[in-house]
């Protein structure tokens, strides 16, 4: 079981979702985040104007915590230009974070779908991280799916998974200590 | 991969410090935290759920310790009451494995990766 975390352009999120659904992967989680790559969030590189300021205004309206962070506002629409105090290097751009858990065999396919939907060749396309997952437990345990160690042994445990049993399955070496 | 749960007030300071140390790109996620901490009382209202920011930073193995030290130093806001007890946590730092990481822009074009970090890219488990 792997967790795939992809940070994508926010305007490509809908396309990615549709492509993943067409590829038979409907279960994803999308978060609206802000992010910055190693090029320090330079929006001038290969990014169409108009998408960014609208989102940032919306984000600033909703987000009370990070109003000083985005160094960019849309001058054309009458917003004040950034003050010198805000002129930090850390211009965080609106991004979309996609998280999904997948079986090991599906990872390559999912990565290819995400890359095909998001690759423009310009800076800011995003990154994909693949992380190991040690256990998955469906809260609605009536349906099976996901080849985690817990789910493989679900039949023999007959839906009576106490936390002790779960711990014994996913972390067998530490179960004796608990 | 470092997941740092910090105060929104401290986020900017952490980011600037990491930038100064040339530690790579990051993603920030606004979250709401509910911990064992007592929470914040303001007038008659008691807040248990506290707005935080999660910073997701992918760093190579040999820079994890440095990044964690920077975050620990900068994320402390030390909110105490009159008796000097800590009212709320300053946050948490989680370090997780990343098996593989690549930029979408260069995927399949220049071989594996453009390797934007100075050492080999953020693979930890291999």
Describe the structure in your own words.
The complex is a heterodimer of chains A (178) and B (126). With 178 residues, chain A is α+β, with helices and mostly antiparallel strands. Chain A is built from 6 helices and 4 strands. About 21% of the residues of chain A have low confidence. In chain B, the strands form 2 sheets. A 4-stranded antiparallel beta sheet of chain B has the order 2-5-1-6. Chain B starts with a strand and ends in a 23-residue tail after the last strand. Chain B has 2 helices and 7 strands. The chains are: A alpha+beta (178), B alpha+beta (126). At the A-B interface, strand 1, strand 2, helix 3 and strand 4 of A face helix 1, strand 2, strand 5 and strand 7 of B. Strand 4 of chain A pairs antiparallel with strand 7 of chain B.
What's the tally of helices of chain B?
A: 2
Secondary-structure element order of chain A, N to C:
EHEHEHEHHH
Distance between the termini of chain B: 14 Å
Spatial ordering of strands, largest sheet of chain B: 2-5-1-6
Kindly name the structural category of chain A.
alpha+beta
Radius of gyration of chain A (Å) = 21 Å
Number of helices of chain A: 6
Tell me the number of strands of chain B. 7
Strand residue content of chain B:
25-35%
N-to-C order of helices and strands of chain B: EHEEEEHEE
Unreliable sequence segments of chain B: 110-126
> What Rg of chain B, in angstroms, do the CA atoms define?
17 Å
Distance between the terminal alpha carbons of chain A, to the nearest Å?
25 Å
Work out the largest interface and the residue count of each chain: A-B, 42 and 36 residues
**Roughly what percent helix of chain B?**
10-25%
Helix proportion of chain A = 25-40%
Largest sheet geometry of chain A: 4 strands, antiparallel
**Shape estimate of chain B:** elongated
Structural class of chain B: alpha+beta
